[in-house]
SAM-dependent methyltransferase
Amino acid sequence: MKLSKRLGMIASFVPGGSRVADIGTDHGYIPIHLVQEGIAKSAIAMDVRKGPLLRAQTHIKEAGLTDLVEVRLSDGLLKLEKNQADCVVIAGMGGELIIHILEEGRHLWDSITYWVLSPHSELYKVRKFLAEHEFSIGRETMIKEDGKYYSVMGVTRDSMVLEDRDQELGYRYGKHLLDSKNPVLKEFLQKEQIQIGEILKGLQSSGTKNAESRIEELELELKWNKEAQDAMQQTD
């Protein structure tokens, strides 16, 4: 099965020999690919909606993998028990929902050895949540597909220590992305800088009192954007 660029990157983060649970599996493409390629020993395709699960079930049957890929109706991680998987994939949803799923799945925190997370939004909140709950992002990359930017994180249960001066930048843009001078992040920062600048110009010319607080917020965002770009330009 040929995956999209985004799904392919997510699948590439899964360690070889894993037993995988894919949360919000949708069409079941990631579990099918992982088992077909011999990356995963087995997989559980999980979703809270019956429609996507029926589609996933059809695709799994067509691939001849019904013995190795199980379909399971579940709200997040609630129907996954300890020792049924050692790698969990949570992708294709907003950061707030990923945080909620992680919180509801506390019973698995110490038994899952690897987590692959790809939030579509609120990355700051996800990274901060992980750091505050003794998870560590050991690997992170950013890709661009169809004009949209996606981050993929490889996470383990371990303390993530960031220096105070690096915390805000790390939560906003990803320490590994900054340290590796990820070219897609660089492009994203440049685009973000232009967008913030354009919004600021419009607000400043409006002259309304309601715009003042928003202008302050955007000026702060612009400051962090500049710091991130400066950090990526520094040589080791």
